[in-house]
Amino acid sequence: MLLHVLGETKEVEVGLKVLEKRLKISQSPEGLPVEIKKGEGLEVILESGKAVITYEDKPHFFRAIGLLVEQLQKGETNFEVKEQAQFETVGPMFDFSRNAVMNVTRLKEMIEMLALMGFDSMMLYMEDTYEVKEEPYFGYMRGRYSAKELKELDDYGYQFGIELIPCIQTLAHLEEFLKWDAVRHLKDTRGALLVEQEETNKFIRHMIEAVSAPFRSKRIHIGMDEAEELGRGIYLNKFGYKDRFELMNGHLKKVLEVTEELGLKPMMWSDMFIKFASQTGDVHYDLDVKIPEHILEQTPNDVQLMYWDYFHTKEEEYFQMIQKHKAFGRTPAFAGGIWVWNTFSTNYGLSLRTSDAALKACKKEGIQDVFVTLWGDDGYENNVFTALLGLQLYAEHAYTPGEVSEERLAERVRFCTGVPKEHYLLFNELDYLPGIPKDNMAQTNPSKFLLWQDVLMGLFDEHVKGIDLHSHFGDIETKIKEVRNNDNQLDYMFAVPQKLASLLAVKGDVGIQLKQAYDSQNREKLKEIAEDVIPVIIEKVQQLRHAHRKQWLHVNKPFGWEVIDIRYGGVLSRLDTAIMRLEAYLSGDIEQIEELEQERLPFNKNVHESTGAGWSSYYFRMASPNVFFHVLPIY
Questions:
Q1: DSSP codes of every residue in 564-603
Q2: Distances (CA, A) of 102 to 59, 106, 368, 437
Q3: Residue 109's pLDDT band (boundaries 50, 70, 90)?
Q4: Largest alpha-carbon pair distance within the chain?
Q5: What is the pLDDT of residues 138-174, one digit of tens each?
Q6: CATH classification for the domain delimited by 89-420, as one of 3.20.20.80, 3.40.50.300, 3.40.50.11740, 2.120.10.30
Q7: What is the Cα–Cα distance from 211 to 92, expressed in whole angstroms?
Q8: Angle, to 10 degrees, between the axis of helix 58-73 and the axis of helix 13-23?
Q9: Which of 4, 331, 424, 523 has a C-alpha 20 to 30 A away from that of 340?
């Protein structure tokens, strides 16, 4: 497609040149005239063989050029689109702290798609995955970004008007740094810093200076969420008890001294302030909480609070909590989420419902800064690109005053990513077992626990008993095969779900079959499983592992893959042992298989009363009920 772009192009010409290949356009005097003008809002007009794009800010232009090309590809010859940004800031937050540190090449590709969607910002969540020269163990062997890499990424985003914002931790969630003996002087508990000491204050300064230097943005997210352990470890032993709000507030003021000195604009997660006010103390956002005056008065004013919530499905619930945040005398930022964490199966049912409700509430309540989190808890087995449909929903809400239609969402995600909406929803099906109600609100994750659980112990067998897993996962494998397209840049993200579905169609209920055959003394069935079924499972595990490794190394830096590699190795070793145990029993070398003698109990006690098939957040709990590591006191 030939376009002749003219007019006020200076600030967008570099970014437009980068996007030519993705948009499948070329610039030529022979092409369709496209006049670029600066003005209010975003407008695209095509009539009489000429197009006019009016844009207010740089990100609006790249959304607008995408809208134009999208309509031209449909064969449209006359149309007009007018949009108005609903937020001052909208963007994703990528988690680069749970092993999967996206490589620079893939992150640039992500930035290009974000530009077409119309995003204007992007947060990089880095607990210890950036360079701090004074601290060699900070991010050691964790795939940390160099200052040069961060500068390169910031430059890349800048050409599209996308502001890259560092998101770090300055209090808790620092387990992977504080585990090193070399920095024990900074540690209160496993994840929390030892506050009220000069060495910690110096370390905070080094972190903030290092992470802010590569970025143009003056905004910085200083974290401070989920710091329940604060003051409960070495601090308690050394100095005695002190109120956590007082400890946190004192530490926050020290952090803000640094950000003020460096001319930075800090924001932080708000959950701890709500927890301090809650009667339970362990509820992230208690809708019934009344925040005491002393918390409202003593919370510093020069930090923006960020309300995170990806659980509630009703607008009024978000209204309530936004109002509680406004009681601090400022309008909060908001962070929703697309559920890519703790599963191989992006939970679109829950994600789209919670996000839609949250974004409609944010627009009505005047929230101006909106982000969407993509956490990677427990090793990030999933692929962040599977969340692009969810990101598209945020982008469409960002330019739509009311509802976003399903039809428009489908059109936009297909254009911006090259993948149809219904194909993204296939990722959802891995956890959407027969009998689970629409939208999977129970956050069940069988795609993960059926893979990692041991076939001889069957910790989750009671959760899936009676479900035709062979047909369910076999159907998913077939559906994914039918949509694969080698010409699509993102086709690789379907390889792991396809291989996983193929594996779980066989492995999903093999533990149940083993237990039933053993209890009924069906030796022929046990022999068949040992000689025919488990060898097939082993082969399919290898195929999945190879596909997963290829995907990981395509998307991420290599650091962190060793964790997933070890998990696959554990599955393969236990399958080998299962064959050995069955053969020993069948040959008479042992009189019983003790693992199969055990009664099967559900992992989640009340799973049969729930709407899901159960949930576990941690691989090591799925793999075995026995000790993986000795849990020491919190410090």
A1: HHHHHHHHHHHHHHHHHHHHHHHHTSSS--HHHHSPP--S
A2: 23, 7, 28, 34
A3: very high
A4: 87
A5: 999 999 999 999 999 999 999 999 999 999 999 999 9
A6: 3.20.20.80
A7: 18
A8: 30
A9: 331
